[in-house]
Request: fold
Amino acid sequence: MISPAGSPLPNDLDAYWMPFTANRQFKAAPRILAKAKGTHYVMADGREILDGTAGLWCVNAGHCRDEITAAIAAQAAELDYATAFQMGHPGAFELASRLAVLAPGDLDHVFFVNSGSEAVETALKMALAYHAARGESARTRLIGRERGYHGVNFGGMSVGGIGNNRKQFGAGLAGVDHLAHTHDLEHNAFSRGQPDWGAHLADDLNRLIALHDASTIAAVIVEPMAGSTGVLVPPKGYLERLREICDAHGILLIFDEVITGYGRLGASFAAQRFGIVPDLMTTAKGLTNAAIPMGAVFARKGIFETFMSGPEAVIELFHGYTYSGHPMACAAALATLDLYEKEDLFARAAALEPHWREAVHRLDDAPNVTDVRDIGIAAGIELVPRDGKPGARAYDVFTKCLELGALTRQAGDVIALSPPLIISEQEIDRLVEILGEAIAATA
Ligand code: PXG
Reply:
């Protein structure tokens, strides 16, 4: 095809404004993923790359699984789109029923969205509307946590605790406050699994309750394990304590399981691994193995039922998206759940965890490593920042890993690892070996 005079060539990199990317740096030395299968990507230059990140914490069953591809294709031919407003289609009901069985406790109602960010906005709005429906409309405050990531929309950005994600965008949602984060290298560096130290940090919620009064607080939202700020594992007893304090004060507890859901921690959800039932739970990513964008918000029975008390002809929650419960996303999710079940992938992840732990902690003594932490099939390797250049060392490690054949993820000066749950022990060893070489090469 001949491009009209003056128009960009089809392979021009300029027009694409890339998300969460240093655009000019990238375009000067592009990294292009062309294909994927199983645990590997293929780069545009034909090199095979071991995927140490499951895409972006989402391709839990490995890439381009035939069963999911076939289900999407069949659905596209059968029913491409159906509005979810005052109409339904079979896949959405089937998927919600399947998910309700998978979820812990009485989290048995499911609202569909298209991303983790939308899941978070939805859960926050549900929390506010729930209290209003019960006549406690003064409960409008939302509490997040420092170093929390809850997506990039205004609600999630506001309850999120990442300065860089907030500072360009004004004051955010009113009435938001934050708990202290739980990461403290002095006390919990090189922990294997959950750190012993730090349960008391949940008492920070009591400080906020004293400050704002519980009667003004609608919900607390936390990631059971904070993923994008570098794998912050909850200290033993911390989440239990948060649950207790929320219960004592009528505050809803929201678990953001966008990363931890669907097997990452060796259980369906982190809620099951830690034995705590939140009131609302946000999920996305692994729900469809990332083949089609989709998120799902789980609500406890009592929350859903509170909304079902008014006149039957009145819409109970004025919220939803054009693509809520999109037929192709539902088909992808159903095929994904089938795969998770058939291959018992969550149990596989749990069984693999001891090998994973031993492997990643081989980096404990690597140069410039200040912490290695792990849980489930996730790990964070924290590096000493270069003087005056935060993130530069981890970026170099990330690009070196790619050169050596592995995709890793950089979060500040932490390298995060979260491979597909189908990864073999040999591939784990190779991933860690490559990371070790990259750390040594950039020391
Ligand atoms: N909540 C959590 C806990 C997440 O990890 C979102 C919400 C938002 O999801 P969407 O689908 O709107 O992106 C996420 C997303 C990283 C990284 O570097 C992680 C995410 C996004 C971007 C980067 O680890 N997680």
Residues 56-57, 115-117, 120, 149-151, 223, 227-228, 256, 258-259, 284, 409, 411, 416 surround PXG (CB under 6 Å). The domain at 23-61+344-441 is CATH 3.90.1150.10 (Aspartate Aminotransferase, domain 1). The two ends are 47 Å apart (CA to CA). The mean pLDDT is 97.
